[in-house]
Design a protein that fits this description.
With 309 residues, the protein is of the alpha/beta class. 36% of the residues lie in helices and 28% in strands. The chain has helices at 13-22, 38-47, 56-62, 75-84, 99-112, 126-134, 158-174, 263-277, 285-303, and strands at 4-9, 28-34, 65-68, 88-92, 116-119, 140-146, 178-186, 195-202, 207-213, 220-226, 230-235, 240-247, 250-256. The strands form two sheets. The chain has an eight-stranded mixed beta sheet, with helices on one face. Helix 3 (56-62) packs across helix 4, helix 4 runs parallel beside helix 5 (99-112) and helix 7 (158-174) packs across helix 9 (285-303). The N and C termini lie far apart (56 Å).
Length: 309
C-alpha cells in the first residue's frame, strides 16, 4: 500500500497528539502541520519531523488526509475548505457546533467524494470490541465520564465536550430512535454546564442513564450494559471489564480479556485505511451529526432549567 500523506490542522494538545501518532503509523507519512499560530505549528512540526505550512490551502495540496483539531466553531469552515481542495478529513468531535454546520460538512463530503470521519475515539477503544461481540439486546445502559477541569474545549459545555462520546456509542449500540429525554446540568466554573446527567428512553424499550462531569477530582470512564442474559461492566480508562451472568440461582462473574492498545492509534489507522481503500469510515459524518443533534437537544433542555447568572 502506498503511503498516505497525512496532515494536521490545529496544533493544540489534540492536534499535537494526532501529529505524534501519524509519525508512528507505518501506512502514513506526516507531511505538514497548520495552525493560525505559526510558532505553535512550527514547534509541533519540528517535534515530529515534518514542516509547518502557512495556509489550509497549502496543507490540502500536501496531504491526502487531514486531521482537523481546531476549535469547534471553525469546523465547518476548515473542514469544507479542505474537502473542496481534495483532502479527506478526520474531524475531531463534536462534528460541528450546530446541526446546520454538520449538514454542510456531510453534504460537502458527498459532493466532493471525500471521506469524512468523526473523531469519536471511544469507538476504537479495545473494550468496546468486547462489548460489541457480546451485544444482544440492551435493556438498560449506565455511563459515567468524569474528569478534572481540562483547561481546553472551554468554548463548549460538558455535554458537547465529554458526554457526546457516550451518546454516540449508545446510539450505535441501541440502534433505535430516542423517544424521550430528561436532562439536568449545572455550570460551576464556566458559563455552560460543567456537570450533567441525561436519561434517554428508546423506542425499543431500552433506557440509558448518562453522567458527565469536568469538575471531578478523579477520572472515570465506565459503561455498564444490562441485557436479559448478562451484565457487562467495562472501564474505558483501564481497558478492563467484567461480565456477570445468571447460572441456576446464582450469579457468576468472569474478567473480560482485553487486548490493550492506544485508541487514538487505532482511530487514525482506521482513517488511513479508509482513505487508502476508499471505504466508508467507522464513524461517518452522518453518525457524528446524529450524536451532535442529540447532544444539542440535551443541552437545550439543560439550559432551559439553569437560571441566568
Amino acid at each position: 500500500m502506498d503511503l498516505i500523506r497525512a496532515g494536521v490542522a490545529g496544533a493544540g494538545s489534540m492536534g499535537r497528539n494526532h501529529a505524534r501518532v501519524y509519525s508512528l503509523i507505518p501506512g502514513a507519512q506526516l507531511c505538514g502541520v497548520y495552525d493560525a499560530d505559526q510558532e505553535r505549528a512550527k514547534a509541533v512540526a519540528e517535534e515530529f519531523g515534518t514542516v509547518p505550512v502557512a495556509s489550509l490551502e497549502e496543507l490540502a495540496e500536501l496531504a491526502d488526509a487531514v486531521s482537523v483539531a481546531v476549535p469547534t466553531i471553525a469546523h465547518r469552515e476548515v473542514g469544507c475548505l479542505l474537502m473542496e481542495k481534495g483532502a479527506h478529513v478526520l474531524m475531531e468531535k463534536p462534528i460541528a457546533p450546530s446541526v446546520e454546520d454538520a449538514a454542510a460538512l456531510v453534504e460537502t463530503a458527498k459532493r466532493c467524494g471525500r471521506i469524512l470521519q468523526i473523531g469519536h475515539i471511544e469507538r476504537f477503544n479495545p473494550v468496546l470490541r468486547q462489548l460489541e461481540q457480546r451485544l444482544t439486546r440492551p435493556v438498560f445502559i449506565e455511563a459515567h465520564r468524569l474528569s478534572p477541569f481540562p483547561n481546553r474545549s472551554i468554548d463548549i459545555g460538558v455535554v458537547l465536550d465529554l458526554m457526546i462520546h457516550d451518546l454516540e456509542i449508545i446510539l450505535h449500540l441501541v440502534n433505535s430512535p430516542v423517544v424521550s429525554i430528561d436532562a439536568v446540568g449545572v455550570p460551576v466554573l464556566m458559563p455552560s454546564e460543567d456537570i450533567a446527567n441525561a436519561r434517554l428512553r428508546f423506542e425499543n424499550g431500552c433506557v440509558a442513564n448518562i453522567t458527565a462531569s469536568r469538575i471531578s477530582p478523579e477520572k472515570m470512564r465506565k459503561i455498564r450494559v444490562f441485557q436479559s442474559d448478562c451484565y457487562l461492566s467495562l472501564d474505558y480508562q483501564e481497558q478492563a471489564g467484567q461480565i456477570h451472568w445468571k447460572e441456576g440461582m446464582g450469579i457468576q462473574r468472569a474478567e473480560v480479556e482485553v487486548e490493550k492498545g492506544e485508541p487514538l492509534k487505532h482511530e487514525l489507522e482506521a482513517f488511513i485505511a479508509s482513505v487508502a481503500h476508499g471505504k466508508d469510515p467507522a464513524v461517518t459524518g452522518q453518525q457524528g451529526a446524529a450524536a451532535l443533534e442529540l447532544a444539542l437537544e440535551i443541552t437545550r433542555r439543560i439550559h432551559g432549567q439553569v437560571e441566568p447568572a
